[in-house]
Amino acid sequence: MLKIIETVLSIFLIVIIFFQIPQENVGLESFTTKSNLLGSPSSAQRFLKILTGVGILIYFGIAFEVNLFNS
Q1: 41 pLDDT exceeds 70?
Q2: pLDDT at 61
Q3: Domain hosting residue 61, numbered range
Q4: Which of 7, 23, 39, 71 makes a 20 to 30 Å CA pair with 47?
Q5: Looking at the predicted structure, is the pLDDT value of residue 29 above 70?
Q6: Is position 34 within any domain?
Q7: What is the rounded CA–CA span in Å between residue 70 and residue 56?
């Protein structure tokens, strides 16, 4: 069960990291401003960073548990 959650979480983290907007790329920032896909660029970027950090911490916790059970 934990292996399935770990796999889904790792795919989710990869997708979240791709959604983060680079500062120097004006084209993507302009797109998100016009489409209002994730709200304002600064609040969307802050939300994605927090979500990524929490996801990474959860991933490490699950990986630690899986490693303990497999030992």
Answers
A1: no
A2: 92
A3: 2-9+28-70
A4: 7
A5: no
A6: yes
A7: 21
Angle in degrees, 0-180, between the axes of helices 2-19 and 41-70, rounded to the nearest 10: 150
Written as six digits, the tokens of 57 are 């911490």
SS (H, E, C) the chain: CHHHHHHHHHHHHHHHHHHCCCCCCHHHHHHHHHHCCCCCHHHHHHHHHHHHHHHHHHHHHHHHHHHHHHC
Statement: residue 31 has pLDDT above 90: no
Those residues whose C-beta lies under 8 Å from the C-beta of residue 10, and which sit 6 or more positions away, are 59
Instruction: Tell me if 22 is assigned to some domain.
Output: no
- Report the alpha-carbon distance of residue 24 to residue 26 in Å, rounded: 6
Query: 43: pLDDT confidence band, cut at 50, 70 and 90?
Result: confident
Contacts of 71 (CB under 8 A, 6+ apart): none
Are 10 and 59 in contact by the 8 Å Cβ rule? The answer is yes
